[in-house]
Amino acid sequence: MYAAPHAQYWYRVAFWLAVLTVVYNLLEGLVSVGFGLADESLTLFGFGLDSFVEMVSGLGILAMVVRIWRHPTAPTSRFEKTALRITGSGFYALVGILGAMGVYNLATGHRPETTLAGVVIALISISLMWLLIHYKTKAGLALGSEAILADAKCARVCMYMSGLLLASSLIYAVSGIWFVDSLGALGLAYLSYTEGREAFAKANGVTCHCHAG
User: Fold this and answer.
1) The pTM is what?
2) pLDDT digit string (tens) for 145-188?
3) Which domain holds residue 150?
4) How many separate domains does the chain show?
5) What HEC string does the chain produce?
């Protein structure tokens, strides 16, 4: 076991990483939705909506970190379970929205005005997600906390979403292929489904592996 001061340091790290996750997702959601609407990019718009759902999930993670910091053996709180169920519902709603809009855009031949904002936002997101995963993993290992390690593992799905946004935005910016943005949105819908499934499983006490498939 680690000495108390060492553990306190890593709990503080985990706490501020959780705070950063919530704040960043809020800002990312606002910026992405704004640019997605202005540029008529469905993938970027959906990415922004996903960020808002991730923010709710982040609040649940923040509550979890505080709980295990104060009472390591305490059971999952009602707030955490509620946050997980809201998160799961949000992801499933996102599946419906992106699925319907993606199919509609494919049927009507809709193309975005530009996807340059998507490229920039995706690159920033990938960089930050990598740092969050790295330091959450370090904190989880230092504390011997499976819960914090699971959060770090699940953050990889967020990085996959950022990678999907980058790929669709970059391909469209370079090639101008009209349907790439719609396919990117449908890809986000699939990843949202996997995250919704994981959220409800965790709310029901099922151990999650956070695979994107």
Assistant:
1) 0.91
2) 888 998 898 889 999 999 999 999 999 999 999 999 999 999 99
3) 4-203
4) 1
5) CCCHHHHHHHHHHHHHHHHHHHHHHHHHHHHHHHHHHHHCCHHHHHHHHHHHHHHHHHHHHHHHHHHHHHCCCCCCCHHHHHHHHHHHHHHHHHHHHHHHHHHHHHHHCCCCCCCHHHHHHHHHHHHHHHHHHHHHHHHHHHHCCHHHHHHHHHHHHHHHHHHHHHHHHHHHHHHCCCCHHHHHHHHHHHHHHHHHHHHHHHHCCCCCCCCCC
